[in-house]
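[audit] Reproducing an earlier prediction to check determinism. Same input, same settings, fresh worker. If the tokens differ from the archived copy the diff job will pick it up downstream; this log only records the rerun itself.
[audit] input (188 residues):
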Amino acid sequence: MLQNYIKTVYTPLVLRRQTFYNWLNKVFNQVDEDRRKEVGPDRTCAEWLLRNGAFVKWVNEYDFITDYNKLPCDETKVYIIEVDATEASVMHYGFEHFVGCKHIRKINFHKCSYLENQALKGLSPLENSLRSLRISECMNITEKGLLYLTVLRHLEELILVNLPYVKDKEKVMNQLRSDLPRCNIQFH
């Protein structure tokens, strides 16, 4: 018991800071079910994405919403069609926000340092709507994560760029092409 106490008290400050930031990011990524019931899945998803540094585009709109304070009032029905998560802090805990979103056609994950394999598994609620997906310079993605994308049967375009921890690109490409035959897949 004394050893556990000593470990807790003498945890290096760097580790305590990392633990705090991980906890904070987890909090900002969790789904608030009451809020989803109140305003709907697309609005709740947009709030999550914007809180974590991503941008959203609504159906029938040309510009991305880049500021949380520019969201329409709660009563306005809006539907997300596109997500730009460039350098966003989205984590797999938050991917449950995609449940119920039926119009998201395009997502760009670029330099998302918290994006990991489990998060890609969380894209499955978008299997009927998602048409275009780009994942670039997300350093925690491996072959395992990319193979979760095979459930996205309506995907037309998959662009993968600079994923250094994907060691066997050819094997992954063969599997993705086999499972997603109508998808144009590029891996740079």
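[audit] rerun output stored. Observation attached for the diff report: The longest strand covers residues 80-86.
[audit] end
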